[in-house]
Amino acid sequence: MPKRYSLILIIFFTVIILLLLTVSFIYQTKQGASNALPSFIKQQPSLTANKPTNSADNLGQESLLQLPLSQGLERITKKPFGLKISPQNSPVAPEKFSGLHAGVDFEILPNEENIAVPVLAVCAGPLIYKQLVSGYGGVAIQRCVLAEQTVTALYGHLKLDGIAAKLNTEISAGDQIGILGKGYGSETSGERKHLHLGIHRGATIDLRGYVQSTKELEEWVDVMKYLK
């Protein structure tokens, strides 16, 4: 009888030991599999965690500019931003300016020479300047915020008395700020009928439409990067 009980005890403890070994093996196997998983599976980051903060699709409304004329992009055919101009190589004749173009020119369409062409505000902000300026004719300047920075938006070659807003009046993006001046007369300072749009960094008014170095050109914004 004692031998029988001894055998039972041996079998019982053997089963217990085997069960413990099995449980331990299963646990270690699971741990090893977990450690072998790539980090992106074990802890998935947010979908936007590594998205560049300055990417185009992250731009807010204050980082985009309204087109100043209907079919605006189709009108940029002669003088884009940064083009080096001289009387010898200009796409416009006659040409009286020289230097790097510190803005973008929007040309009129074939049927617009003798009709009123409305100019829309490209951004939201107060009108801080309106005056006749040599080389431009009528000029309106608006202070705005672009990409979280203060800028001034200059609209050149406007009909001065067509700028209806009073100084310091808030103008919303897309509102009419004026109309193009008549070509080759006092309203455009003898220039063709078109819009010169220049965006200068900071709150200081700078009337220049051309600069003489790339260093100076850095004071202006490349408008094409922000048009919507």
From TrEMBL:
The chain crosses the membrane at residues 7-27. It holds the Pfam family Peptidase_M23. CDD domains: M23_peptidase (cd12797). Keywords: Membrane, Transmembrane, Transmembrane helix. The keyword tRNA-binding does not apply. Gene3D superfamilies: Glucose Permease (Domain IIA). The keyword Transmembrane applies. It comes from the Bacteria. Residues 101-202 form the M23ase beta-sheet core domain. This is M23ase beta-sheet core domain-containing protein. It comes from Candidatus Falkowbacteria bacterium CG10_big_fil_rev_8_21_14_0_10_44_15.
